[in-house]
Amino acid sequence: MKILVLNAGSSSIKYSLFAMSDQRTLLTGIIERIGESLALHRYRVTGNEAQIDESPINNHKLALQEIFSVLKASGASNNAELACIGHRVVHGGELFKQPVLINAQVTQQIASMIPLAPLHNPANLLGIQEALQQMGDIPQVAVFDTAFHHSLPNYAYRYGLPSSLYKEQGVRRYGFHGTSHNYVAKQAAQYLGKPLAELNLITLHLGNGASVTAIENGRSVDTSMGMTPLEGLMMGTRCGDIDPAIHFYLSRTLDMSMDDIENLLNKNSGCKGVCGENDMRSIHQMAEAGDENAQLALAMYAYRIKKYIGAYFAVLGHVDALVFTGGIGEHDVWLRQQCCAGLTAFGIQIDSDKNQNPTHPCGEISSSSATVKVLVTVTQEELEIAIQAEACLMGTNKTPF
Ligand SMILES: Nc1ncnc2c1ncn2[C@@H]1O[C@H](COP(=O)(O)OP(=O)(O)O)[C@@H](O)[C@H]1O
Ligand SMILES: CC(=O)OP(=O)(O)O
Ligand SMILES: [Mg+2]
Description:
By secondary structure, this protein is an alpha/beta fold. It has two domains: 143 residues, Nucleotidyltransferase, domain 5 (2-Layer Sandwich); 188 residues, ATPase, nucleotide binding domain (Nucleotidyltransferase, domain 5). It has 15 helices and 14 strands. A hairpin with a 2-residue loop joins strand 10 and strand 11. It binds adenosine-5'-diphosphate (ADP), acetylphosphate and magnesium ion.
């Protein structure tokens, strides 16, 4: 059985084709900068050279057409062999606690959640619609970022706002990156040789978007992102936790519209707002060259993570392991050191040699005397989506959370 996974973001689409018998990747690619003058398409058919193509791709529809033509030309699959297409859908609200086979009603329900995820759900829906046009009646499965966090207790997911806003408008914490938190938690359990249901973990997904999750006995009990992916850690371009009164202040003193503020907080804040750059590798280069704003952005980024580690220690009482993942969590040696520094009282201590070069796909970087393991795990959101889509398709899908 082969499964194609589409992870459509606002300006990029990642895709992977898997052979499910041994979870092998047959083809994987990403189109970035969709809508800009030159989009960048990188893909690789396993066993062949990576291909890079720069050309204008004006919209998601064209990007998807390109993906399907690569898929067909690669010979990696044809329509007959493709069992289903799995989609990452960011917001599933309270409706979707597990993956679901997509039909017209599900599509409409995902659309109804656009106000809760205006930057993500429209792109996910486009992916679904285009796949339908391109591939006809091949089954499609939606796998939700929010699903893993359905186990949050009400005192963790409710905001201190009037109950009617929760009951009538759905204003609550949902949490995101659930597929990744779930995947790396399973990897950590395997590494530690214990059932996930017996483990307390703090998982840190640090990519362009970033979130931390407190996992108690294998279930998510708190997470840093909120009603939308804007809350929590400071991110590449998103502000994370801020005083909500800043909104009124910006509106009254700078006459900013709601759209201006939304754009500012999502796209021009976080590291980009502080130092003008959102890519962590570039921020390090700037900091090393003496740029004080870049140095400040790094210090703020690490400090926010450390505060959440402390908070989730208090939530969990006992922690078996911290798990770093995402492009930054997997690669940024300095950052891992920085956000664990000074936490020996919690049992956290990093071995700086191991931290330089953690083993893949799951490496331990804590010192041998530490009571809390610190792990670096490569996340595979697309593979996890394929695994969950297969279970959904085969009807073996049980509510896992
Ligand atoms: N070697 C590295 N050191 C520090 N940061 C890195 C490194 N490699 C990638 N990153 C950072 O990872 C981030 C992207 O993470 P990724 O998980 O790929 O993003 P996405 O959320 O889009 O999946 C970028 O900020 C990038 O700079
Ligand atoms: C939900 C979210 O923040 O996703 P991403 O990190 O892909 O932007
Ligand atoms: Mg990622």
